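ok so i was messing around last nite and threw this chain in just to see what happens. nothing serious, just curious
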Amino acid sequence: MVASTDTKYFLYTNANAPQLTNVWGQLCSLLDACLVDGFNQKSISSLSIIGNVITANYSSAHGYLDGQVLSLSGATEATLNKEHRITSITSATLTFEVDNVPSSLSGSITTKLAPIGAIKHLTDSSK
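result:
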């Protein structure tokens, strides 16, 4: 059974994690990254599959942590373009499980830490 993606977590030590400093508007940027947009987008160099476990290979360190939830996009197989929970990692690879085994693992596939899923209703239109 594939792990649920309902619970997500972020750490300030994640690669490209938004940080708070004494700069006006930075709290809004941090909240947007974690709640609405996601962050730390990386391109996958190759994918392989054994059973229902997919291994994603990156050309450099990805900066994700075991158990975090990724948002995957750009796959030609539409069933892959969704959120997946990481089940294991090395510095440049990670694995996740899928419900439906895809027929192909192609496309310009990118991953990022999945946002919490909030919807941004108001924005500052003056910027």
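not much to say yet. The first strand starts at residue 39 and ends at 43.
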